[in-house]
Design a protein that fits this description.
Blueprint: H1 6-13, E1 19-23, H2 30-38, E2 44-48, H3 52-59, H4 63-70, E3 75-79, H5 87-97, E4 102-107, H6 110-117, E5 125-129, H7 135-142, H8 144-149, H9 151-157, H10 161-165, H11 170-185, H12 195-207, E6 212-213, H13 215-222, H14 226-238, E7 242-246, E8 260-264, H15 267-273, H16 286-304, E9 310-315, E10 321-328, E11 331-337, H17 349-354, E12 359-363, H18 369-372
Parallel strand pairs: 1-4, 1-5, 2-3, 3-4, 11-12
Antiparallel strand pairs: 6-8, 7-8, 9-10, 10-11
Helix pairs in contact: 9-15, 11-15, 12-13, 13-14
Length: about 375
């Protein structure tokens, strides 16, 4: 069994007087993680929010009835809790009225779940995001040397647990997984009215990984208006398909202030959307794949280790650009992603002059582990 970084963190929060909320896309291993934590303990009651009788149970509920249902159980786990109407109020009832019970809920859609939780559970929850397996988790599992040997495979097929453990069936499983992503957790949301255009949008985003994204250009490519494009991207973000980086801007009029890049949390999903599983050496998008891998793995690493940083990219109207920027404790560090270790690159002079105390590093396939561990 592959140990997840979040396991120790969740364990440390048990019985702290707050609910634990674990958010993440389907199939990233949320339920598996909770099984690792609790096993077959008789102290745990498992409920699934996808099941109609569980939804009905919580439709009209009181603390007295809940206590009777929970009985002597000390830990209550609700999977896919966002399927339960007014789940935030139900969770507040449990945490306030039955404090001896540890409540743990999972959800595959922050778009539904977070909006129903934030106000009712202010100050009453620990919330964590879970992503596909990370480079760091796999290094911990079978060592740095083995994981570096698999680097090109990861760039193509990604890090979903089922993909990691089903060698030889990656393409078929990724096709099924990407379809599940689209139809279960995005298209069924009532805001999505044109599924074929959403798929076109995802494919357009897949082709533009690492590039500055224009809502107007995406509108032209998909036939959606620009506001709908932005709304759909927000849904995709809140169902953990993609995430965006905004542009870094402090001192220069020429710095772009409202632009964005959009990345996929997993390279395998990105490649499945464009039906391209060619070897890295045969691809014209090797640089984009590498950048998506590095940035997404860094985001996983920072979230899994509770390493709070601000993240951006940098670009000017004159098209001077830096792939990725972090600011932590007042220090600005700029990173450029290069698949080829021999590629030459210098930090833009304008950036150095504007931010003279910043640091600059090139991340390539011979040194990337320092960035991701």
């Amino acid at each position: 069994m592959i140990e997840r970084t979040l396991e120790k963190l969740l364990k440390s929060k048990l019985h702290s007087g707050k609910a634990i909320v674990l958010l993440g896309a389907r199939q990233v291993g949320k339920t598996t993680l909770l099984n690792m934590l609790f096993g077959n303990s008789d102290a745990v009651l498992w409920l699934n929010g996808d099941e109609l009788d569980v939804q009905t149970l919580f439709a009209t509920i009181s603390a007295t009835r809940l206590k009777a249902i929970f009985g002597t159980k000390k830990i209550i786990v609700i999977d896919e809790a966002q399927r339960i109407q007014d789940i935030g109020l139900r969770m507040k009832l449990i945490t306030d009225q039955i404090p001896e019970v540890q409540l743990v809920v999972t959800g595959s859609s922050s778009f539904e779940l977070a909006n129903k939780l934030n106000e009712p559970l202010t100050g009453r929850k620990w919330e964590y995001k879970m992503h596909p397996l990370s480079f760091a988790e796999m290094v911990a599992h079978h060592g740095l040397l083995e994981e570096k040997r698999l680097l090109e495979h990861r760039l193509i097929y990604g890090y979903y647990p089922e993909i990691i453990t089903a060698s030889g069936h990656e393409k078929e499983l990724l096709k099924q997984l990407s379809s599940s992503y689209l139809y279960k957790d995005v298209l069924l949301l009532e805001q999505i009215k044109k599924p074929e255009r959403l798929i076109a949008l995802l494919q357009a985003l897949a082709y533009q990984v690492g590039a500055q994204v224009s809502f107007n250009e995406l509108s032209r490519l998909t036939g959606l208006d620009a506001k709908t494009v932005e709304k759909y991207i927000e849904v995709l973000e809140q169902t953990y398909v993609v995430f965006r980086l905004g542009s870094f801007s402090r001192n220069l009029r020429s710095e772009l202030k409202k632009s964005r890049k959009i990345y996929f949390y997993d390279n395998g999903i990105r490649n499945a959307l464009i039906a391209n599983f060619n070897h890295i050496e045969l691809r014209t998008d090797a640089g984009a794949l590498w950048e998506n891998f590095i940035v997404s793995e860094r985001m996983k690493r920072n979230q899994n280790t509770q390493n709070w940083t601000n993240s951006w990219y940098w670009r000017t109207k004159e098209q001077k650009e830096i792939d990725y920027i972090e600011e932590q404790n007042g220090l600005i560090t700029a990173f450029e992603c290069k698949w080829n270790p021999m590629a030459k690159h210098k930090i833009p002079k304008l950036f150095l002059e504007t931010y003279p105390t910043s640091e600059f590093k090139i991340i390539h396939r011979d040194n990337f582990e320092e960035f991701l561990l």
